[in-house]
Prior knowledge:
heterodimer; A: about 500 residues; mainly alpha; 22 helices; globular; B: mainly alpha; about 0% strand; translocase (chain B); NAD (chain B); EC 7.1.1.- (chain B); transport (chain B)
Amino acid sequence: MGLPLLSLIVFTPAAGAVVLLLFRSEDAVRWTALAITVLDLALCIAMLAGFDQTTHQMQFTEIHAWVPTLGITYALGIDGISALFVFMTALLGWICVLASWVAINSKVKEFMVSLLVMQALMLGVFCALDLFLFYVCWEAMLIPMYLIIGVWGGDGRVYAAFKFFLYTLAGSLLFLIGVIVLYFHGGRTFDILALTGQDLPFWVQSWLFFAFLIAFAVKVPMVPVHTWLPDAHVQAPTAGSIILAGVLLKMGAYGFLRFSLPMLPEASVYYSTLMLALSALAIVYGGLLALAQDDLKKLVAYSSISHMGFVTLGVFALNLRGLEGGILQMFNHGITTGALFLLVGLIYERTHTRNIPDYGGLMKVAPVYTAFLALFTLSSMALPGTNSFVGELLVLSGGFAANLAAGAAAVVGALLSAAYLLGMFRRVALGPASIGARFKIRDVNAREMAAILPLAVFVLWVGLYPKPFLNIIDVSVKHLLAQVLTKGSGQ
Amino acid sequence: MTATALFQSALASLPEIVVITGACILLILGQLVGKGQGHVFVWASVAVVLMAALGTLMLASEVRPAYTGMFVADGFSVFFKFVFYIATVLTFFLSRKYADIEGIESSEYYVLLLFALSGMMIMASATDLLSLYVGLELMVLCTYVLTGFLRREPRSNEAALKYVILGAVSTAIFLYGVSLIYGLTGTTQLDGMAAAVTGDPLDPGLLLAVVFIVAGLVFKVGAVPFHMWVPDVYEGAPTTITAFMSVGPKAAGFAVILRVFLNPLVAASDAWLVVAVIAVVTMALGSFVALVQDNFKRLLAYSSIAHAGFAIFGVVAGSADGTASVMLYLLIYSMMNLGIFGIVIMMRNGDFSGEIIEDYAGFARSHPGLALLMLLYLFSLAGIPPTAGFFAKFYVLVALIERGFVMLAVIAVLLSAVAAYFYIRIVMVIYMREPQRAFDPALTPLVRATLAFTALGTLGIGLFPERFLRLAQGAVFGG
């Protein structure tokens, strides 16, 4: 029993939130929050360094009794899939702090506390090996996120916060019922690993699959339960958008990977066509919606729906390339869309408009900013050499192998994304300098650079040399796939 | 009855005797203490309750039947008595300053609360429909008077009158059921009832009797269709009494319902179906009507109806886990509800009533600490983890699904999503609006202590539910 590394990773931000409550000075709060998130990232890097990529077993496991009467444990552990997301969450954590450095100027302490609590809970979700613990973290996130959107958001923040809260709550409550049903079928245990080995009757699996689907589909979000997302994204402060796009949306897909696929393999195989169809719908419909947007943030928000469609498409292709591509795309989407929201936030701080027609010629007044915008736009449309290309290619090849129509729809979605992203870039960055003249935009400063640069590095790193990232997940994905296919082929 | 039996009986009912004696002494003491000495009453009353609690603890080790089967001191009653003690002591703490502000500073207030407490304790221990009736009436008579304690306020008088009339009707219904039971089985003892039934347990006469008794009890916990008094009485009563009524008498009502429903006679009939319908309708009505309330006390009244509905789901489950889940629910509900009421009571100061939700706009800006507490209580009432409110609901759902009532569980969670809306709306008003006025809460050390205690309970039980779960389960299995 060595150092409880995962507990440290989860509880560092939580403890930091408590420490922040003691401070009075806003600057002290900012610097401390930054220090805590950087420390957390360092812990995550240490975790990755000690991570054994050759096994699918859970690593760094910690198990303690919590509510033994009901078989609830405090159990943490990670495999390759969770390791990637734990790392991503920690990576975006300190970027969120930097993104809110000047953007948040009222109730700074409360904001940073919410942010840190949020981070602790998100890390808890990815590390949890107990369904009850998972659910507690999953659901408790509603509280800080509700406050982040509702207190520090834009003009329509109250409505957006409400909508976000109620959609997610209603979805998760059915998940809770599913969890309890699973608990009784699995012999009164909440242990995720023990529950994956069960042979549930097909009809039970089907019911559970749909109970879980509602919860996860709301989080992803899949069409038609996506309508909370544009509202929440547009109204949330930049850091909130980054968290939403970067981590929160991943949790739905993570739920499919951790619960639906291994615990309900027969149902997953049986309903995979339905899921592929829903994914294809999200890809095309999200793309079309994005094409029609004049608001920068809305455009990125709708493009998220489309991009998350790729993720679910890859997952439910139920083959190795699809799954690996889907998971890698989750990571990529976190990096790229997080960065795009960050860039939108930076420009909004300067001009206080997100209306695309207001912009133009940004390249002349803010060349460094525009260069970054170009990079992340290209990454978002999956140009070769960027991270999304690798992921999208894997998803497409997996998708075509699984279902020709779904693959074709995904190609249409990829074309659409090129259309709306290039159109956006043209209208914002090229042409005569309209807004620059009116507002005298400053280019990115050092602090902003510190937030963007690491994301840019990851865009190129994954794009040019994805092997280390695929290596992390590889063994776990193979194991997951074997679990699904051996059990699920019966149907 | 021999002298030893009498002694044993007296011993088993020692806590009740302590409370009643204490209340009588306080009644006399009240005439001797001068004006402005309100704290004497508070501390004397608290001392009485503490002595009773000590007595209860000493007797908790074994099951003691008393008074020829009319009364029992067992684990079940001990659990409930502690819920009552907590509710009463916290009500005393909250009352001190509030009573000053409202001008209701008199010893009778505390005496009546103590008598109500003794009534509740008798209810929890009653094993005979008659002793149960005595406890019930002792409790409600005191709450009738307490509801009308704001003599100069028409609203308070009206509430009391309404409460008395409707309460009397429900009592009559209950008594009618009892008389039917006695006529059909020749006994009023809960144990004897099932044994005395020789023929078909689904005899229509017995069924009718059960329905009447259930109707009488359902009134006390404010479940549909006997809920109409709740909003008006809660709104009209002094807020401290509202807080007390939403927790203590409600828990007492559930104690009785559980005792009656664990009875084989009722268990054999199809009463659970009726109860399931009551639970669904109660929760739906409470949740949906609460959505449109502007008055904080009325909103909490409807919220308490909704919570009663959720707890009744635990009664429907009926198993040992179901019973334990209701008990745990009530303990947790007392914590969070007294907490939120504590805030409303504290806001009553000067010309400020603190009863309108909009009054709280921007509260988070002026009093971040108190706003955070409200946030905790409200999210707990909404059932969001990691607060205790979540665990309360979770355990009820576990009990329901254990018995195979998955559809009921789904209905319960969907309705609690509706209920979440109005709690979150209050959070919105507190956190996301600009302040309209300066706040000057009546924050005495006693109120502080109450808020700290309830917050600790609300968070503590949520994070570490094991011990409390064992207590509740032990009270069911052991008793």
